[in-house]
Amino acid sequence: MFKSRGDIVYKCTVRLLEDTEILECEFHPSYKGKYLLEHVCQQLNLTETDYFGLRYVDAGGQRHWLHMAKLILKQVKDASPILFSFRVKFYPPNPLLLKEDTTRFQIYLQLKRDLLHGRLYCTANEAAMLGALIIQIELGDYDPNIHVGNYVTEMRLLLRQTDAIEARIQELHREPVEGTPGGSGGVKGMSTQEAERTFLKIACQLDTYGVDPHPVKQDHRGNQLYLGINHGGILTFQGGRKTHHFKWNEVHKINFEGRMFIVHLNYPEKKHTVGFKCPTGAACRHVWCCAIEQMLFFTLPSSSDACVYSGGGLFSWGTKFKYVGRTEREILERDGLLAPRDGHEEGSSATGGKRKASSVPATPSTPMTGDFGYSSLPRSTHSAPLEESGIIPSNEACNGGCLLSGPAVDIALACDHVRPEDPKPVMVSPEYNPRDSFEHSSTESGATTHTLHPHEEWSRAPPAPPPALQPPPRPFSLLRAFVPSFIFVWLSLALLTLLVFETDWPPLRSLKRKPELVSLRHHYYAPLKEYLKKKVIELF
Q1: In this structure, which topology does domain 95-119+123-203 adopt according to CATH?
Q2: What CATH code would you report for 214-343+353-427+456-472?
Q3: Considering the chain, what is the average pLDDT of its residues?
């Protein structure tokens, strides 16, 4: 007796944020991604699940986030064994606002991992302080009877952990907290919770907080570029520094064509289009999905089953992405950190019902701003206009949906010099120089990010009114136009054949008596009909 599909059980392994900890899980073919994530969060006693996700790598080496609304088995059908990594997907702008200590601890573990793999790039002093806080959290106060020798060496804290920086970490671990008797700015005397909160406060102000960089094609000078996407928008990194920051309220549209990831920018005076060439088409789709998810999570007031389309080319279907789950604003309203919106904003009709999926644009043309007025979000100051940096000529203007043309298609952003208004890079001591952190990152993360900018100030700007969403036209696709027409023609022919050969409709009697149709029925239609009838009988 054959097993039914519902009786089959698949096993998978989930790696947690501590590499030594794993979970062995089971799922049925009918289970969707949401089930597995909720199961893992339940094992970790996590209730604020919206910030987390499960990542996996396909047979081609491309990373993906497990989609919550799709079948697990369909997404990992080629994987053997089935392996997931539990990671922070949406880094909260201010992790200190989180309600649960367990959630903050998981964010701490993720940032500790980012620091180790070079994704959380910082200066030598910041790295020493973050390392000392980790030591304080995991070992407690310095005790000369226990902490002897160079005990910091035994703990892997940084990507490039030199003797000099280990000595500085050990020194900070011995020094009392500033403000206590004899305090000199160290970490001794901090409780575990205080050290964890201090770690999060420092980390969330760094430029690379929440950034998982994606490598893109080198510019015309041969310098490697990386794209980073977080709560504040899309960032570019080049030569050890942040070069541009495109805020979400300046992003007009995001789409991709083949290997080209395209960002349409909407400035007060002009509109610009910037392209980044990714290594592969699959990598480009992944960058687009990550950007769309981050933008919708941090900008939409309500998810409302938002659907986004992109990528349609001459011989491609394009990509449809459906956003599921709560947005950041919905989470903050639920936790009482934001006042609920008026009822008329919730629905699209006078009844106050939720917006239908059809009311959500195919591609967000002007996404709603992510600054909702809570005063403790770290915000970056935007770079100068693109024409000043030499990326786009000042006389170039695009009309919303324009694409790049000429040499700009084949290169990404070209940031060749430091503008006077740019923050100047902070020089790092020779003992701590993680310039190669991108290349030395773990294979699971793919690439890492680094920057040398000073901390940015906390923004207290008033909320901007959200602009309206307008659905732009989808690009024409010959394949999308041909296939439905092809199917329609063949269905019409099949219907006409059945009407002629299987019915006795008076208008068709004269047509059925024609010699050509009589021959067609005898030599082709009747044998095919008998063959299909025999196969159906054998099957049942």
Answers
A1: Acyl-CoA Binding Protein (1.20.80)
A2: 2.30.29.30
A3: 74
Q: How far apart are CA 285 and CA 475, in angstroms?
A: 17
Instruction: Please classify residue 394 by burial: count the beta carbons closer than 10 Å to its beta carbon, then call 0-12 exposed, 13-18 middle and 19+ buried.
Output: exposed
Torsion of CA 455, 296, 79, 61, to 10 degrees: -50
Tell me the C-alpha to C-alpha distance, in Å, between residue 538 and each of 219, 528, 533.
Answer: 63, 16, 9
Output the pTM of the full model: 0.67
Structure tokens at 234: 């899309």
Q: Give the Cα separation of 519 and 511 in Å (integer).
A: 13
Go through the chain and tell me how many residues it has.
540
What is the spatial distance between Cα 453 and Cα 122, in angstroms, rounded to a whole number?
8
Rounded to the nearest 5 degrees, what angle is found at the Cα of 121, between the Cα atoms of 252 and 200?
Answer: 85
pLDDT digits (tens, 9 = 90+) for 266-320: 888 888 999 999 999 999 999 999 999 999 999 988 776 566 766 554 444 556 6
For residue 502, what is the enclosing H or E element?
Answer: helix 478-502
CATH topology of domain 5-88: Ubiquitin-like (UB roll) (3.10.20)
Interatomic CA distance for residues 506 and 503, integer angstroms: 9
* Position 486, amino acid: F
DSSP assignment letter at 458: B
Torsion 260-64-20-110 (CA) sign: positive
- Is the alpha carbon torsion for 229, 231, 236, 239 positive or negative? negative
CA neighbours closer than 13 Å in the CB half-sphere of residue 210: 25
